[in-house]
Amino acid sequence: MKRLIINEPGLFIGVKKEMIVVKRKNEKILEISPLNISQIVILTRGATISSALMRLLTKYKVDLIIYSSSGFPIAKLSSTRISGSIKLRKEQYKAQDLPIGAYLTKRFAWAKVVNQKSLLREASRNRSNIELSKKLLEMSKSISNIATMIDNIEGNNANSIRSEVMRLEAEAAKIYWQGFKLLLPEGIDFPGRRKKFENPEDPVNIMLNFCYGLLASEVLLAIEASGLDPFAGFLHIDSPRRPALVMDIMEEFRQPIVDRVVLRLISSIKDSKSIIEERRLKRDFRFQIVKAFSERLSETLTFHGRSLPLSSHIFLQPKRLANFILGRENNYIPFTLR
pLDDT tens, 157-171? Predict the structure, then answer.
């Protein structure tokens, strides 16, 4: 996926003869065809766009996403020329109260835990410190046992098993984040996992939260393309404030994408505190992190017998989920790296 990232205040993005034009103080700094990009990402509050640009983007089905300073997608421009998917959505809502709802609840949590296990196990093989390697391997085995326990939970619908699944998921997360801390370079402050609403002050949690916001927008776009309702989830309970199905499918991609990007970036930073100000990433570093995130999405991995960029796997998972809910597939295989 090719992105045009707007991260500088004062830029104007308009159109000239069917081309996207970016200007700084009336000076053209970029001209690009809408056929050559699939998304425009706006990270700054100071950019302006023209209505002609919005028309052009909808014509060529180029997404325009506006992010908050913490990395969460707050607005999206899309065409109104979309088709309805009434039957799929009715089956999705019905599935929440059926055994397949319990099955999907377990699948999403199981995938997250398996990917946590895989990341620690892989790290254990790459460490020259024998004691550290042994410790990471033990942690991965403990998490693997929890994955099996999640898989064995029985229930008739999503509600009947959600609390137990989440309890086990939290147990695995406690071990995982202890292991994740061991992978950070010496001197990096990481007090444990802190979510955005907890207002973390350390660079690692701020980076994680920013990248999870980027991932949420990728999953949201994929779900909307599939016809599923992004607000009707299985592992995560329905809420008008949070797209529960986005949170569900995100679980499959947190470790393979976000956690790996953060580990790569943090190891290349000399002074981790220099990248943040007032509990937010500095503008220059936001650009770097979006670039690293996009590069990770372009990396090819084999899953379900297909070697594709990670962005394509994200796009396909909601479609596979839709096929399962409609009875066109016998099972739903979540994205895992094992």
Answer: 999 999 999 999 999
Mean pLDDT of 84-104: 95
Q: What is the pTM of this model?
A: 0.88
Chain-centroid distance of CA 311 in Å reads 10
3-class DSSP state of 100: helix
Question: Cα 22 to the chain's mean position, in Å?
Answer: 28
d(CA 213, CA 220) in angstroms, rounded, equals 11
Per-residue pLDDT, 115: 97
Q: Where are the alpha helices (DSSP H) in the chain?
A: 51-59, 86-95, 99-125, 130-151, 158-183, 203-226, 244-250, 260-266, 283-298, 310-325
Phi, psi of 14 (to 5 degrees): -135, -160
Residues in Cβ contact with 279 at an 8 Å cutoff, skipping those fewer than 6 apart: 199, 200, 201, 206
On the 0-12 / 13-18 / 19+ scale of CB atoms within 10 A, 85 is middle
Residue 326 φ then ψ, to 5°: -85, 0
DSSP for residue 238? P
Please, what's the b/e burial string for 183-197 (b: 16 or more CB within 10 A of its CB; e: otherwise)?
Answer: bbeeebebeebbebe
Contact 201, 193 (CB under 8 A): no
pLDDT for 22 beyond 90? yes
Q: For the beta carbon of residue 224, count every other beta carbon within 10 angstroms.
A: 18
